[in-house]
Design brief:
This protein is mainly β. It is built from 2 helices and 10 strands. The strands form 2 sheets. The chain has a 7-stranded mixed beta sheet with strand order 7-6-9-4-3-2-10. It has a 3-stranded mixed beta sheet with strand order 1-5-8.
């Protein structure tokens, strides 16, 4: 399936008029020793409509906010950046919470495809540079909860 950091047919949106992210949940990224590397407030995209809307027309202002996409069935997830004005890091996570791969510094406003390296149930989108800043690599873990 193709999901978007900004899926849609409209042109680039005015980011200044775009809604800010809701804090629906909290995500923790865990190092291999289970210590917390980073904690983010996230907007949860768990419906087809929310996943299609993604971060279209919105920019992340800092490293501690993001969007968590949740899918019903783990499968290869593919995203693009159409209508998304800021570069992102996409962290693909399997059903057990293990990081599969990271698509770092994605290209804003592009149709380039970014895919998971295996069946992913979650995709965490954070500001570009997030994964490098906190050293996030495949094999690390993610846990989350709703607020």
């Amino acid at each position: 399936m193709l999901w978007a950091a900004g899926l849609g047919s409209a042109g680039a949106a005015d980011v200044s008029a775009a809604p800010v992210l809701r804090a629906d949940g909290v995500v923790e990224i865990l190092r291999p020793d289970d210590s917390v590397a980073a904690t983010l407030a996230v907007e949860i995209a768990d419906s087809p409509e929310a996943r299609a809307r993604g971060l279209m027309g919105r920019a992340l202002s800092g490293f501690m906010a993001g969007m968590l996409f949740i899918f019903e069935t783990p499968q290869t997830q593919t995203f693009w950046m159409r209508n998304t004005p800021s570069s992102l890091d996409m962290i693909f996570v399997d059903a057990g919470g293990r990081v599969l791969n990271v698509a770092a510094h994605t290209t804003p406003m592009s149709d380039r495809l970014y895919s998971s390296d295996g069946p992913a149930k979650y995709v965490l989108e954070a500001r570009a540079g997030f994964a490098d800043r906190f050293g996030i690599r495949p094999g690390w873990s993610m846990r989350w909860r709703r607020l």
